[in-house]
Amino acid sequence: MLQTITISLSSLNISSLMPMIIVIFGGLGILCIDLIKKDLSKSLYVMLSILVLVIDLGVVLGFNGPSRGMFGMILDDGIAVLGQIIILVASMLFIPLALTSKRFHEYSHPEFFALFLFMTAGFQFMVASDNLMLIFIGLETASLSLYTIIAMHNLEKSFEAAIKYFTMGALAAGFFVFSALILYAITGSVELHQIAKVVSAGEYGSIIPLLGAIAFMFAALGFKLSFIPFHTWVPDVYEGASAATAGYISIVPKIAGLIVALRFFDIFISAGISWAYYVLYAMIIITMTFSNIMALVQKSVKRMLAYSSISHAGFVMSAVLINTTQAHNALFLYWIMFTFTNLGAFAMLWISRYKKSEFTAKYDHPYQKFAGMVTVKPVAATIMALFMLSLAGVPPFALFWGKLYLLGAIINSGNTFLAILMVLNSAVAAYYYLKLIVYMFLKEPDSKANIIYVKNASTALKTIVGFSAIVTIFAIFTIEPFLEMISSYVVASGF
Prior knowledge:
It contains 20 helices and two strands. By secondary structure, it is an all-alpha fold. The chain has a two-stranded antiparallel sheet. Helix 5 (132-151) packs antiparallel against helix 6 (156-187), helix 8 packs antiparallel against helix 10 (243-270) and helix 10 runs parallel beside helix 12.
């Protein structure tokens, strides 16, 4: 006799899906508009994308406490809300960078904006779930959209970057699925809260399969967060992508990956599985140190910022290792400060971008391009220097406060040695940030620099840079309200 399966629609909890539904339908709406009327201005698509993201943010901010949806697969808790806020705000700040001249034709296609919204939805699914299958679907939705966006820059090295990113991403996807498969085999679930119950009770049988699942997830998240030695795609992808897209890659995919890592590794660190703790410890130290060494020898500012983003990801991953409430608060504070600073730095590169490289065919932004910038564009040079000082953690700029609070959390947890290593790495990093400042202020300008610096400086880009600079300079006045907001959401997450 067949058994009737009944599904309660109340368990769908459509309100938990609304943030993702809004951006998905927004992307579909843009495609439909293009079918009805061709050759509309890209300004219209920029405004429509921002409108969709603003509506989405309003829905996300209507958080009323932890809840589940989509038959238990969606987890709408404080961590999910924080992650979505960062993703949406960063997306709203990056999308106006499309308002440049027509030289960069990818922004003239509505498909770019539809893909951008689909990518945003994928990242939202990642942070708003503790189901490994839904996280995987979100990850691949975002990744496939991002591969295409990179290729749409329509340069030879853009195609190369997209292929490299796709290949490495496919390998990471395989590792993620293998991890989920093993965890399902030994715990009977792909839901992290159910896996946590089995692991904490020690009911998973042999430790070997569990360590295998952790190792595969280390590799999968290592690729997405660009940890050493899974970072090999990063410099080429950043160099091949537009500066605007590279800046986005340095911020949004990483916060999504960090939240997945936070949910995943919390299970094993809380259960006292020392192997996971020490491997994560070693990965953090290696990632920070090696990426800083590599950044020292780069000849391109964009590639330097690529290795810089690896270092920052390793730096903030220490909050996952420490796994205290203060560390979780520090993670989000750090990334909010990093978002504004890195947004400004990459926006400055985008302003100086010219389709035909005047210096070298290999790099869009070699250091010599910025030589003597202070004599040509003193305001632009000063603003870029502010962003570099913030990335270096110089007070009183934005990232100094993120680093200070994170180091405080690490020291309070008793990990003084890790804190010392992080301070030493910050000192090393300061050298390559100051290197760009030396070029801008102390080197003789190139005769072609006057042509290049004004090529892409639209009103929209100047506005974004100005906003980022204001937040970076006056961050001290935002720390307390940011911490209050972050703390309220972290408490509502159960961590």
